Amino acid sequence: MIDRLITSGMVDRAPNPASKREVVVVASVEGSLVVSQVMSRRRAEISRIVARMPEHLRHGLVEALTAFAEAGGEPRWSARDEAPERTRDHAEVD
What we know:
The chain is 60% helix and 11% strand.
């Protein structure tokens, strides 16, 4: 799987400077962009769904989703975080 991700440009692999027996795999710039775009679209879709819910039920759902995301290690996010990405000229990834 890592070889496929490297071939597609999504990740980079390099020798671990601390150990010759290991390699380090990190998201490439392109891979990070894809992850950012997917996360942005996911958040937008969740926002659209939550907006269709009755207002009195939204607060509890948002609290639960926030706790779920934090438990999963996802970084905190707000609408302001996405503003710079929207102004950049990036190709859409489907």
